[in-house]
Amino acid sequence: MTARIGVVTFPGSLDDRDTQRAIRLAGAEPVALWHKDKDLHQVDAVVLCGGFSYGDYLRAGAIARFSPVMEPLIEQAKAGLPVLGICNGFQILTEAHLLPGAMLGNDHLHFICKDQKLRVENAGTLWTSDYEQGQEISIPLKNMDGRYVADQYTLDKLEAEGRVAFRYIARGEAADGYGNPNGSLRDIAGITNEAGNVVGLMPHPEHAVEPLIGTGRTDGLPFFTSILKKLVNA
Amino acid sequence: MSRTPLDTVEHAAATPDVELPWAELGLKKDEYERVVEILGRRPTGAELAMYSVMWSEHCSYKSSKVHLRQFGEKAPQSDAMLVGIGENAGVVDVGQGYAVTFKVESHNHPSYVEPYQGAATGVGGIVRDIIAMGARPVAVVDPLRFGAADHPDTKRVLPGVVAGIGGYGNCLGLPNIGGEVVFDACYQGNPLVNAGAIGVMRHEDIHLAKASGAGNKVILYGARTGGDGIGGASILASETFDDAKPSKRPAVQVGDPFQEKLLIECTLEAFKEKLVVGIQDLGAAGLSCATSELASNGSGGMRVTLDDVPLRDSTLSPEEILMSESQERMCAVVEPGKVDRFLEICDKWDVIATVIGEVTDGDRLEIYWHGGKIVDVDPRTVAHEGPVYERPYARPSWQDTLQADDANKLPRPQSSEELKDQVLKLVGSPNQASKKWITSQYDHFVQGNTVLAQPEDSGMIRIDEKTGLGVAIATDGNGRYAKLDPYAGAQLALAEAYRNVATTGAKPLAVSDCLNFGSPEDPAVMWQFAEAVRGLADACLQLGTPVTGGNVSLYNQTGEAAIHPTPVVAVLGVIDDVARRTPVAFQEEGQLLYLLGDTREEFGGSAWSQVIHDHLGGLPPKVDLERERLLAEILISASRDGMIDSAHDLSDGGLIQAVVESALLGGKGARLVVPDGLDAFTLLFSESAGRAVVAVPRSEEVRFNDMCGARDLPATRIGVVDGETVELQGEFELSLEELRTAHEETIPALLA
C-alpha cells in the first residue's frame, strides 16, 4: 500500500504540479485538491505548495488562508494530519496560525532565486525523519517575501523546544549558497509545530528531487520519503 | 447637459465634412484619404480609431513588410514547420507527437517610459501569444540592451526592467532560462527590452486565430477593459521620443500577472475540452486588433456589441474601448452549444467572461454601441490591407570610413603583464561580467523541468519525463557587428544562436527574430534594415532553419541618433534525451581542452576593441555558415556519444572569456598553451566565428580526434582542466578567486 498525499491548488499556485511529481517520485500517490472544495478527500497528508496565491494581494497567504479548503485542513492539522507548507504554503500556515511568526519582504528588496545551503536542525518531524540531525543540504530558494520574523518570546520558545527545523547556514560567501539570504531572524528557514506534524519552510524541496533537473541535486527528496515511511508504517 | 450625437455610420455618411483628428492618432494624410476611399465616406470616430492603431507601424509592419517577405520566399524546406509566419507564433514539430511554439517580441518604448510595467507587460504579451496557439507556456527568455552601464539613467531603467520581468514571469510560474544583457551608449534613451517565450502542446492541440462558422459566439474573457494603454500602439511605438511633447506615461499599460496566470489555466482547460474554434489574445491595438484579425482570418463576418464589454472605467468612449490595451484579456470563438461550458470554466478560475458578439455569414465587421452601428468595415482592410511603404534606402556615406578604421591595427599588449591586465579588464567589463545579480531575480526552477538555464549557452527544458525529450533555446545579437556590416551582423547573430543551441547538444530547428532598428524614414537606417533582413533570410536558407515569426521594432532613436542595428535572433533546438546535454562548466580535472574551428586575426567589433580601446571599426568576423553547420554536427554527435563533458561557444570576448566562464562555473582552473601558428593575443581575444572550446575526457581523445579529422573540422589541443588558476603557459597565471572577483563584482557594484 502507499500513501495518498494531497496538493492544494489555489488561484496563483505555481508549484502544484512540481510537488505532485515529487510525491510520485518518492513513491506516494499525489491527489489534487481544489481551494474551493471544502473536502480533503481522505488524504493521508497535505502539501501547501509555492506560488503567489491570490496574487499575494493584501499579504502573501492572507487570502488563501480563508479558502474553503482551509477549514477542514486547519481542523485536521490540529488533530495530527501531516501538513507541509513550502514558501507560499509556509506563509499560508503562519497566516492560519498553524505555525507562529510571519514572513516579511527580503531585506535586500529583490526577488531571489538561488541554490541555498540549509542545516536540518530537527530530524524528528514527520517530514524530516529521513535526514540526519545536523545534516547540511542544498535546495533552491526563490521568493520575494522570505524574511522570517517573530517576537523575542516566540523565537526563544521555538529554540528551546527544538522547533527550528531548518536554518540557513550563515558562514561563508553568499555566492556559493551559504549565508542568510533574506534577513530571517536567527537564520530561520523553516519551523515545526509542537507535535511535529506541521512543518513550514521557505526553500523548495520539490525542486530538488531529480539529478538532471534544476540544481542537479536530490536533497529535497527525503521530505517526501520521510512522510511516506511514516504513513505506510503507521 | 448637452451631448454630441453618437458618431454612427449613418451619421458619418450624413456629415461628410466633419474634421477628424487623424493626424493626432498617427495617420498620415494619404493614409486617411485611403480610409475614406475604402469606406466610400468619412470614417466614424470608432472606425478611425481602429484604422489608426491597426495601420500603425507596430501593427501593420508597413515599412518592413516588403523586406520581411524574404523570410517566406527564401524559407528552407523543413518538415518541422507546422505553422509559419502570420499567426500569433510559429509552431514546430519536435517529434514524439509534440509541437513547440516560440516567439520573440519587443517592448522597447514602453520600457523606457515606465521600466517596470513596460517590461512586465512585454512578458505578459508574449506569453498570451503562446497560449493563443493552444500551448502551455514552459519558459521565457529576455534579451535586454541598455545604455552605458555607468550612466545614471541605466540605474533607473535596468533595475525596473529586471524587477518587472521577474515580477511578472515569476508570478506566472514560468522559468526564465536565457537571454542576454548588453550595455552600449547607443541604447541610451532607447533600451531594447525583448521578450521570448516557448510553449509546448500535442500536435492535435494547435489553435489558430480565426473566427469561422456563422452563429458562433465571440467571447471576451480576462480582465476588465480600462483606460490604460490607449493609443499605445500607434503613438508610443511609432514616434520617437521628443522632450518637447507632454509626458506619455499614461499610455503604458499596467500588468496583473495573477490575472494572467488564471487566464493561462482557464484557457488550457477550455482547449482540453475542445471548446474553442478560434482564439486571439488582446495585445497591441486591443479589441480593434482581435476582432478585425479574427474576422479577417475566418470565413465570415462578425457582429460585436461594445456595450457588453466589461469595463473598469464606465466613462470610456467606444473609441477608447476599441483602442484600450488593458492587459490579460483574450477573445475566443465558441460554438453556441459549448458557450455554457466555456463560461463555467472561466467561472471556476474566477475569470470574467462575456459574450460580446457572434460570427455572421456576411463579410463585414460590424460594431454596435448604444443601439447604433459605429463600425461597418471589411475587416481585411483593417487587419491585412494596410499601407505598404517602399521606403527609400541607401548605404550611408560613413559606412566606408567606419569599415576602413581597422580594429586589427589597434595597439596590442606589449608584455605578459599587459596581456594579463587586459584579461582581467575584459572579464570584468560590464558586457562580459557575470549577470548573476540580474538572473538571480528570475525563477529558474519552477515547473521542475529546467535542465539548463543562464549562464549556459542555451536554456533547456525537458518536455517529456519518460523519454527525456527536450528543447533548447538561445537568443543572440551583436549590434556592434551589425553596425559594421548589417548583412554579416544578422548572419552572425543567427550563427551564434545556432551554435549556442548545438553546443548544449540540441539540434537547431527554427528561428524567431526581433529586429530592432532606428527610424525607417532615414534611408541609412532603412538600408541597415534591408541588409539585415537579406542577410538573415539568406543564412536561414543555408542553415535550413526557417523563420517562424517574430517582430520588428523601428523608431529606436533619439533625434538623429539611431541605435546600432540590432537584429536579435532566437534559435530553437530539440534534443532526444536531455540526459545527454552538455554544460558550460568544467567537470573534471585532467580533461583535455580542444579548440574547434579556425582562429584568425579578427578584432573588428570585438569586446577587446571596445573594452581596451573604446573602438568600433573595421569588419566583423567572417561568416562561414557551412563551417557553423559542421561544428554543430560535431558538437551534437560528441554530446550524444559521450565524447565531451563540457563545451562553450566562442563569441564576444573570445577564447579567454569562454575559458574563464567554464572555469568559474565548474570551480576548476585550466592550463593553456598557445598552439603553433597563433600568438597569445590572437588566441585569447580574437572573435572568429564558428568556434567552440570543449573538454574531452582522456579516454575519449582518440575517438574525438578521429571524428573531427574524418569530418575535416580543425580541432586543436590547447590545454587541460587543472588546478585553481587559469594559466597561459609562459605568459600569466590568474587565480580563480581573482577572476571571480573581477567577473562577479562589476554588475552589483554598478547597479545594486
UniProtKB/TrEMBL annotation, chain A:
Name of this chain's protein: Phosphoribosylformylglycinamidine synthase subunit PurQ
Keyword Hydrolase among record annotations: yes
Pathway(s) served: Purine metabolism; IMP biosynthesis via de novo pathway; 5-amino-1-(5-phospho-D-ribosyl)imidazole from N(2)-formyl-N(1)-(5-phospho-D-ribosyl)glycinamide: step 1/2
Species the sequence originates in: Streptomyces aurantiogriseus
One GO molecular-function entry: ATP binding
UniProt subunit comment: Part of the FGAM synthase complex composed of 1 PurL, 1 PurQ and 2 PurS subunits.
Catalytic residue positions: 87 (nucleophile), 204, 206
Record keywords, A-Z: ATP-binding, Cytoplasm, Glutamine amidotransferase, Hydrolase, Ligase, Nucleotide-binding, Purine biosynthesis
Cited function: Part of the phosphoribosylformylglycinamidine synthase complex involved in the purines biosynthetic pathway. Catalyzes the ATP-dependent conversion of formylglycinamide ribonucleotide (FGAR) and glutamine to yield formylglycinamidine ribonucleotide (FGAM) and glutamate. The FGAM synthase complex is composed of three subunits. PurQ produces an ammonia molecule by converting glutamine to glutamate. PurL transfers the ammonia molecule to FGAR to form FGAM in an ATP-dependent manner.
UniProtKB/TrEMBL annotation, chain B:
Gene Ontology MF term list: ATP binding; magnesium ion binding; phosphoribosylformylglycinamidine synthase activity
Protein location: Cytoplasm
Protein EC: 6.3.5.3
Binding site for Mg(2+) 1: 105, 551
Binding sites annotated in the UniProt record for Mg(2+) 2: 129, 281
Function field: Part of the phosphoribosylformylglycinamidine synthase complex involved in the purines biosynthetic pathway. Catalyzes the ATP-dependent conversion of formylglycinamide ribonucleotide (FGAR) and glutamine to yield formylglycinamidine ribonucleotide (FGAM) and glutamate. The FGAM synthase complex is composed of three subunits. PurQ produces an ammonia molecule by converting glutamine to glutamate. PurL transfers the ammonia molecule to FGAR to form FGAM in an ATP-dependent manner.
Protein family: Belongs to the FGAMS family.
Protein name as catalogued: Phosphoribosylformylglycinamidine synthase subunit PurL
Source organism of the structure: Streptomyces aurantiogriseus
Taxonomic lineage from the root: Bacteria, Bacillati, Actinomycetota, Actinomycetes, Kitasatosporales
Gene giving rise to this polypeptide: purL
